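Budget justification, computational time. The allocation requested in the original proposal was used primarily to generate structure tokens for proteins on the priority list. As evidence of use, we reproduce two of the resulting records. The first is shown immediately below.
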Amino acid sequence: MKLLFRVAATLSLASAPFALFSPVAAQEAAAEPAASASQIPQPQFLQSGDEVPWLYEDSDVPVDEQWLFGEMDNGLRYAVRRNGVPPQQVSIRVRVDAGSLHEREWEQGYAHLLEHLLFRESKYLGQAEAIAAWQRLGATFGSDANAETSPTHTAYKLDIPNIDRAKLAESFKLLSGMIREPVLSEENVAAERPIVLAEKRERGGASQRVADLTRRTFFAGQRLASRNPIGTIETLQGANAPQIQDFYDRWYRPENTVIVVAGDADPLILAGLVEQWFGDWEGTGEAAEAPDFGDPVPPEDTATASATGLPIGELAVGVEPDLPRSLTYAIMRPWRKVQDTIVYNEGLLLDAVAQALINRRLEQRARAGGSYLYAQVQQDDVSRSTDATFVTFAPLTQDWEAALADVRSVIQDAITNPPTQEEIDREAAEFEVVFVNQVEQASVEAGSRLADNVVNAVDIRETVASSQTVLDVFRGMKDRLNPAEVLERTQKLFEGDVVRSVYVTPAIGEATSDELQLALAKEVEVDGSARLAAQTISFDELPPIGEPGTIVSERPLGVLEVEQVDFDNGVRALLWSNNAEPGRVTVRVRFGAGYRAFDEETAVYAPLGEMALVGSGLGELGQNEIDRLATGRKLGFDFAVEDAVFTFTAQTRSSDVADQLYLFAAKLGMPRWDADPVIRAKAAGELAYNTFSTSPGGILNRDLEYLVTDKDPRFATPSPAALEAVTPEGFREAWEPLLKQGPVEVLVFGEFDRDEIVEKLRLTFGALPDREPIPDEIAARVPDFPEASSEPTVLEHRGDANQAAAVITWRSGGGMANIRESRQLEILTQLFNNRLLEALRERAGASYSPQVFSKWPTDLPAGGTITALAQLEPDFVPIFFDEADRIAQDLAANPPTADELARVTEPLGQLIRRASTGNQFWLFNLEGASTDPQRVDKLRTLLSDFSQTTPEIMQFLAERYFGQRQPLKLAIIPEGQELVEAPENAGEVAQGAARPERREPEIVGR
């Protein structure tokens, strides 16, 4: 059941009326596929009456009645339900109980390779036809059509929008062909192998070496220690069709398969389709018996015990010069299938409260200037291989032993002494608000997420529960939330069979395994100084922002029922009270000048502001006091520096929105300037900087925006040298005037009492002093574009020698005046993206990394870019440039085909339709409209701008941006190598079928 936490900015052909976009209350008037019971077989294997659904066997957790369960004679199990979020979408999941832990020694990587092959060719899909087939159904690759291979399973995921009878039938047909009858030929294996090897190459480098070391150390003696889903070079290169077929026959069988479907359709029709397409499926040959994943056990010769008395097992010290220090130790226990009862879940909640108490204390120690940057305790069941409690922290200096002692002393206090009831009540209040919020949001929970929840439950061998059941269980066990029981559960979290640890350091000789063992064996002092006062702070006790403001104007904005309210101090608010998302409110505050506000001297303080501005407090409240203020409430405080504006954003509840407005207004009206958050942010920046050099992707993250803006210092990642000059005083000097500068716009979208919020706005934002104007020289700042050269800029990384990246960027535009053109550019970039995938995927070994995207700043008149990039082998960098140039020039010279366009515009149109059912879509598209009326006018054509075009328009835009403008080229190659020349036949890089980008679950997720 897992009660807890196991529990693009936006020429047109036609106007789109607002009726196309109006939010739909979830589950209301769900659209039926054009299918009837006579056309789709009635399900024969539904579990009904007194029969316990297969997911709930041996459990007393109340069955979620929204789901219908079935188990067919061939052993295949399924779960289906109606869900109208988003409207007219159906989410299908096919889970096969076979992952990397099911592989034999010589089969490492086969589960993942097989996942690729199922997309490559199957009964109803010829070679390289998958991407086009799903796009024609309206699915966006990488999000709507995807798959994952983990140590314990392989899951295929499909979200089909704008569903009707034909699409639904076609989707099940195609999926059944993939799952039941893939074409596992030698030709297909040979074609997919380089793609998988490319994925493996892209995952290499320092971070992967640490992940491998961690896996080998923590799971020593278990299958998980040596089995990464990506496999090994040797096993992948040795794979052949008969071997893959053998793996498929052993594991891809109906009795190993679960199908989950949630969507805007009659669940009986969904169940009938599952049975129609999978009911006669039979496995080939003998079924395999699942292997024993093994238990964590101490080495036989272990004589040393940790301070807790547990034997110390495998230890490792990894030296990575470009990674910050990090130490993790784990208390390991065997994983066993649980009886998923209410009592068991009550125990999980007690565990969660215990961990939350410790983590709050650890965070308090870090905030106060401790010896570590961060620390966290987390219990985790890893891949049905271990039940472990992980302790992870980042020492600030080479004195890792002092940091270890500090962290363990806080934990030892939690193990030795019971918490106060007030502390427990504080954490319980945090969980209460989460569970209540889930109940409030149950009617708008996306079908895709519900389907994923069932897949996860099957994977961990537990059940699912409705949000109401979770809340009821929580409220029914509150008498167990007492100091004695929390202390008992805390102690059990640190009991186990063996302690293991990994320390990563940039310095050779800083630590050895023996020294790590001695440090873990030392007696631990009990330190309760990190305990926090548990009392809450009431908003009623806080001072007023200022004299209440006066409303000078209230009027409709002119779209939907959004209202604009203006105050005499210049603050403008956009309000839309609606019940599309029950109980949920999004608040965003836009103010100031964004990146425009910084110059060369103050540029370093921009990213530090994103890390430290909120933490530096407000009024008389520091970060700890703000945390107490938020107890039992759903409040947020996300801060971002954008192109031309600063933003505060929060997802809150109807009952908390008034308090949320006070917090945001107080940050502007009475900011506080605590030094510790700035010092901590500075340390984090210094420790992280070298990590960018460990891979081509890291260099891209560090330098791409800086280079594209002609080395504008505002967009540089601060180096340790730049950070050295940072002080808390300098931080305040840079930021204090910016909080007073520029107009303020407040957007409140969601379910709230309109009159109450208008009055709260009058008392908060309306009470702010008049804003200072943005100076003309700041308002005029627009990022430049470098003078392009025919030769690429070359940067070096310190990662693996077979990794490289290539980027080509064209200047585009910006501003709302041409926003409709930017929407059409999104179609053009998707066309480009499809072609680049097809050109590079196989022959250039680029896996799924090639991508093309457009950035169009709406708040600036210029500064936009179109970028194509890929990660690949160094020898293929010149080929990338040639292929990107060739595609760009061909798009400029020749119009695309109608089919090409349809494969892009249909998914884009469906993406807009689905997104438009939520408040955040409207907020995103209307922000700034209180001072810029064209944002409303040009919203009317948004759907058609993204989903309707002509080949001629695409050619026109390609000629404008690709045919007449010299791009910036950037190559990132391994240190010590030189950029090679492109081969003469570079233009002959083969067309390859593209597949969705997929990300595998991390083996050790903490």
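The second record produced under the same allocation is shown here.
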Amino acid sequence: MKFGFFDDLNKEYVITTPETPYPWINYLGSQAFFSLISNTAGGYSFYKDAKLRRITRFRYNNVPLDLGGGRYYYLYDNGDFWSPGFAPAKKELEYYECRHGMGYTKITGRRNGIETKITFFVPLDYNGEVHKVSIVNTSNQVKNVKLFSFLEWCLWNAQEDSTNFQRNFSTGEVEVKGSVIYHKTEYKERRDHYAFFSVNAPISGFDSDRESFLGTYHGFDNPQVVARGESNNSVADGWSPIASHCVEISLQPKESKELVFILGYAENKLEEKWEYQVGEVDTDGLLLSSVAPNGTNVINKKKAEEMIAKYATVKAVDQALLELKDYWDKLLSKYNVKSHDDKLNRMVNIWNQYQCMVTFNLSRSASYFESGIGRGMGFRDSNQDLLGFVHQIPDRARERIIDLASTQLPDGGAYHQYQPLTKKGNDEIGGNFNDDPLWLILAVTAYIKETGDYDILEVNTPYDNKLELAKPLSDHLKRAFNHVIENLGPHGLPLIGRADWNDCLNLNCFSMDPGESFQTVTSKDGKVAESVMIAGMFTYIGEEYAILMDKVGNNEESIRAMKEVENMRDVIMKHGYDGSWFLRAYDDFGRKIGSDECEEGKIFIESQGFCVMGKCGLNDGKAQKALDSVEKRLGTKFGLVLNNPAFTRYYVEYGEISTYPAGYKENAGIFCHNNAWIMCAEAVIGRGDKAFDYYTKIAPAYTEEYSEIHRLEPYVYAQMVAGKDARRFGEAKNSWLTGTASWNFVAISQYILGIKPEYDGLMIDPAIPTDWEVYQITREFRGDRYDITIVNPYHVSKGVKKLVVDAKEVEGNIIPVFGDGLEHKVKVILG
């Protein structure tokens, strides 16, 4: 069952009912100001950091669903009122449509002869959200209506905002000037920033106190101000500050009017406010101010006034929206496929790349499943997100690499997370996730292959954000590589540490001696448990490091690294292969995990993908046998489950993984992230039919037909789909912010379609279904544009028979770098 449709021409997904199976959202902003917006205008906004710079309030797990806050509008017409986006008033609409596009959302609702269309977007280079509201009288009668706006301010730190009520209820402050409502809480004594909500028209009233607007025992669905049709002109003094305008509109039959609302964020430079105390820094790492002159709290409104003036007219707003669309058209043109499969085309050309941008910007911090409070930017997460983003804006990828490396610890490990506002490691989480360092190597090699920018290796980069510990980035890579081989267990496999990629496989957190009761559980030091997955990562990523060292002329380091990689392959095949597949790990007592000897959890997906990608077992058929076992034991119609059989009881020595019900999350759920590793592995051994089949199982466009089961957005990947052991098999959770986005783009663009950046050019190495005859790729690479046609006359999956570039045959399968800024015609014949 569908709840909308793809409009590929406009790069939009069109939702035709407000009652989707779960809120289907979009993201606005791609630089510093970000917003989440649902198909009924729910969600919230923040500047850079969803925890420390939250601008509007949102309540997760709210009842009814998605009525925890948003940017809401109400139309009042002679006693009747409704919301054009359905929520929050939830009055029946004669017509409804939501169009989620690239960085914008358009919601249209019609009732009682009034059609209202609201376009929400964040313009480029702008710290604010613009709402263009168009109201049309579709009736044959004169309409005198009132438009009420509404949003609720968050008191900046989302953690404190949701917990410290004894203080919060006494600190909320606003200021109203004309048609602008300023949120200035904590401006007086602590910070140099504020927010505002404006409209480019005279207002007949306003409200800035939530209780006054709603009524003490009323909700967003029935605010008493709107029901009465008259604002209270309330000014918040503590309690819960909001911003609401009332605009009176008179419309002749068929007449329309347009308004511009702006939700903005502003920071003043030091000289624009008052004297700062030198060196004073608050807990968020930001400058503190001294008390304002005479104890006043008057905002310097210059920044806000400039922002409001920039989009004071509809013409200026429309131009900004055109610029945003042009921006995305250019970004998405950097990799484009034209094939016989529309679903493949729209995923590769539009939605997958769009989602890669969002995950790059936000890591795992703020979605409808991540509150923005618990996690900032993840070290492993952000390094992986970069893989699907680096071709779009390489300069930003470069900056991100330096930010990440700056949180690395001197021993080569890393803080697991950091806050994007301060860019400092999160002490509460710490490090000791032993897969983390390797991801930095993979991100750096991907960046250099894309750009040819070897100079990044010489950038002096701090350890632990301490400038006195700074070393060239190349030193960071070496320490990351060495962190693995300096932390090996009794089998010569890497120690898992606190966890590897699977955060729920906690083999050192708590453990007990075999046969002893649960009461004797003791904390362990984590010096025994080993990860076959990290070992597989090391063979794959470690070889990338060795190749890079060779490219920069560090032959001694390259030889050393390659020797360690080859040794690890030997160890894996000796101690990490279980007869038909690769083991997952050894626990704290040296017992196998992911073995046929186990009662439950006999096979795990992660090590199968990375060990094959790392060239383990390629020459003796064991890699193929492992992937055959994946299909047989982990395969389902909705994708590959993470492990099998599912755990049906709690294993204290395994940690969190066995606490989930069977079929959910890490306990035999379909973890879409690691499905891509199997696609890549199948491509490595040349089985393109199988690789693409796995791709279609989880790619969102292919799930649209059963949206009532899948529930989440049919245009972006979810982290997890309930597995075959679950009661709700096929239902997705945790959409948008997932490494699934970047890895599936890598899998389809580089491994299946086969256009892979390398140091010396573009490698052509597809692994496609044998029945494919032809497809085309356009790819921008280092300033040149390549128009590549791949034909498959012999119906093979893998193998380049001939490569012709600009009518000249090229030996091998790498298109050289021309560096002339021109378009080059490429023809590839498989065989």
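A brief technical remark on that second record: The mean pLDDT is 93.
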